[in-house]
Predict the 3D structure of the following.
Amino acid sequence: MFAHTLTQELLRVLERPDLRVIAGARRIVLDPVLEAPFRILPDGGIVLGLPLQGNLEQTAFFLRHALELAALLERAPGQPFHAAFCAARTAALFWYLDTGRADTDAPAAWVPLMAGPDVPDSAALHAMWPALAPLQPALAALPVEADFTALQGALALLWKLLGPIETLMATGGDARLAVDPATGLNHYGCSHRPRPWAITFASSTASSLSERGFAGGETARLALVAGALQGQAEAAAQAQDADIQARIASAFGLSDDEGVVLAPSGTDCELYALALAALAPGGRPVSNILLAPEETGSGVPLAAQGRHFANDTALGHGVTRGARIAGFPDDTVVANVPMRDGAGHVRALPEVDAQTCDLTHELRAAGRHVLLHRLDLSKTGLLAPGLAALEQATAPLGADADTRPDVVVDACQARLDPARVRAYLDMGWMVMVTGSKFFTGPPFCGALLLPARVRRRLDGPRGLPAGLADYSYRAAWPAGCARDGLPAGHNIGLILRWQAALAEIAAFGIIPRTVVRDRLRNFLAAVTAQIAARPVLELLPSVAPARPGPDEAWDCLPTIMSFFVRAPDSPEGGFRPLAVAEARQLYAWLNTDLSGCIPPDDADAELAAVLCHVGQPVPLAHPDLPDALAGALRISAGARLVSGEPSHEGMDPTERLHREARNVGRILDKIGLILRHWPRLAAMAPVQTYLPHGWRARAILPA
């Protein structure tokens, strides 16, 4: 009976996508007479033994501990003693991340100590050893009189590297990556664990990991920890940074004389592009021309001036938002070219082009070096200025080619074929990309791609601004003496996020372009029809990206569907859109289990528990909301829509895409459900969660 109970319990735990990925093909068996909670076998298999009937949380904890220890013993076979404590650290952090329980509820006495910010002292480590030793496969090979003082010193060097991937991925960005213990989600409503039960079309903002991305990041994490256990921490991290740069370069067709700068975000890319523009020949003051800054990252206008764009940096340094970053010239100025008029309508491209050219010529005539942006694409899918306008704006003045502006393409949405990126580099333009938007990797993984003419500036006599030392490590940049002022080290969170994103990029890259186009076109047609069919929604006109070449290319499709939602208190027969604050509330409620808030007699009550993640609202003007900005929600087609997910394995692609289209209908129906019960929900104030309510009580995952 015990074996049967534990088997069913273990199967339920292994239904969890995070543990299923980590377990992989590892053999797991049961032994009800084993006194220890588990034992690692010499062949790497796991024996579970402690009776945990009915306690899924403890089963998950001990299984996660066993999986970590087994992996480290395999990857660092000469360090079983240190591996025991490293695995315990990861398991302890997993317990609190997984349950949020108080210390008194920990399943082992050592858990609170190993989850703390500092390494326990040598006496505490010594006291833990009797509980950890029986978990090892070969007790006779372990030290009897170990030096726990030396162990403490070794762990101190490893401490910040140890932990489950969900914890480490939240580092090396900013406060928006932090997971709220009350919800299990970060600022974006995302998780660094797979969340396949949620309906997700949020790639214009951020996405939770898929099992594929989780596996890519987890493989990199284990390589880093194993390298550190064998005394090769620096080499292991350097190898990861170099691997990521090489794989990004391969994905976008970069040559050996070009370069990749790794960045935590698109906003950091903006800062790096400005720093490189300041290294242009001639030493002239820089003017930075932004396109539609209201439809890019909120911190971009500050970064474009060389100012701190938050109160903390990706490396954890406290700074003052808006203050000048050391080393960036104080004569840098920013000029903006809007792409929408005061009523929120998209401006005609010739008008935007003319303004961009006039502004560029004016600044060049004033003796300034211009950093000119091409936005490809904005938060709502806009593309400008046109290529002809950019050619005109950047034409040489006289015989002095050094006066030509720098161009940086903001392709942070990454909604373009890699061949377009290659074409931009051939023009000598920098390109910002991310793995976290279209490619659906975790938020906060960016890169600035450098053409050869800009890459060579890193070999020049002038260094990068000193203040970049608060933002970036030397290893994130291509080699060159200009980067020597940056600190040694590695952004571990960024490494893991990029490895997760690259797994998605690789999966998308093997899909034929014609298949990509057809899958996107059919899905987008279904989405457009469903939004247009609902009177409570108002679809923004789609603007197809004006790109050279055949119109049938997949990146000529508008893959971001933006729409306003009719406010519940709109006048009879009228359409007042939700203001930004209201739209943000709707956005959060969509990603929330509302089953305890919606009356069961509502025809759509079954949708209340469905978790729906869409793109964050974009503030836009609307003629029927003259005194405030409206919030436009977004449903976006991302790479995973095309390539599928591991949880879709075996499903017919056509049926899978039909299901995705039906899921859009469920999102839109849930919007209607929320609108009908808006006052009730506002009074009850439900919050988002990683899982629907009642999962632990039901002991099953949602379908």
